[in-house]
Amino acid sequence: MKLIRTMAVLAGAASLMSACGGSSDDLGKELGLTQPQVHFIHAIPSGPNVDFYDNGKILQPNLAYKAVTNFANIDTGAQTFSYAAVNTTTQLASDTSITNAAKGHEYTVIALPDAGLLPSIAVIDDPFDKGLLSGSARVRGFNASANAQNLDLYLVAPGTDINTVSPTMAGVAFKNAVPATTQDSIYVSGGTYQLVATLPGSKTPVYKSGSFDLVNNADWLVTTLPAGNILSEVIPNKIRLLVAQGGNTQTPAIELPDTL
Predict the structure, then answer these.
(1) Is 249 helix (H, G, I), strand (E, B) or coil?
(2) Whole-model pTM?
(3) Cα–Cα distance for residue pair 196/5, rounded to 1 Å
(4) Which of 226, 223, 246 has its CA nearest to residue 237?
(5) What digits encode the pLDDT tens for the residues 151-199?
(6) Helical (H) or strand (E) element with 177
(7) Pick from 98, 114, 157, 204: most CB atoms within 10 A?
(8) How far is Cα 126 from Cα 134, in angstroms, rounded to an integer?
(9) 3-state secondary structure of 73
(10) How many C-beta neighbours within 10 Å does residue 226 have?
(11) If you ran DSSP here, which 8-state letter would residue 217 be given?
(12) What is the distance between the alpha carbons of residues 128 and 118, in angstroms, rounded to a whole number?
C-alpha cells in the first residue's frame, strides 16, 4: 500500500508539472531519482574539434567550437572528465573534482581557454533544486576570460540604468561560476532582457548585449570569453558572451553580439 501511495503522489506531481510546463525528467531530478547527467560545452574559439571523455571512454565525439551536447546519463561515483583532439588520445585537459556524482544532479563540463589560450577545463555541479511547480528560467554565469578575471554580470530589462541596480551575478572570477558549483542556478521570469558586464564594483560596461528573449523553463549558462580568436587579438577586459542552453536538444551555443 505504501508503494501504491508513493506512486500516486508521483503521478499527481507529474500531472501538475505537465500543466505548469515542467517535465517528468524535472520531477525525477528534483526527487533525486534519476541518474546523474553530464553535458559538454566546447568554448575554445580557436580550438580543434574534440572528443569528450568520461572515465577514459569517449562519451560524445567530434565536437566543434560552440557545441553543446545533450545531457547523457552517467554512473554515480567518481568521474574523470577530459577531452582530446579528434583522432588523438592525448588528453588536452582533465578534471577529477567530481568524486561522487549524485542522482538528480546535472554536471556541465566546459572546455575553455586558459592564459595564453591554452586548453583548460572546468566542471559545474548543479544540484537542480527547481521547484516542482516552477516555470522560471534558470541562469548561471561562468568566467572563461583570462583577460577579464573578475566580472559583475547584470541580467536586466533593455535600457535599464545599471547604476540603480545590483549585479545579478556579482564577482564572477576566472574559471568559476556564480552561483558557485554545488549551488543551484538563479531563477528569473521569462521575458526580454539584455546582459551587461562590468569590472567588479564598477558601473562602466565592458560589454553590453542587445535585447534577447529568455523563455520560461530555459536553462542558460552565460559564459564570458576573450573577444579575440588568437593571442595577438586578446585585449584586457575585452570579452564576448556565449550562451549555452541546457536540456535534451543539441542546440549550439549562441554568441550574443557586443553593442559597445
Answers:
(1) coil
(2) 0.86
(3) 49
(4) 226
(5) 999 999 999 999 999 999 999 999 999 999 999 999 999 999 999 999 9
(6) strand 177-178
(7) 98
(8) 17
(9) strand
(10) 24
(11) T
(12) 31
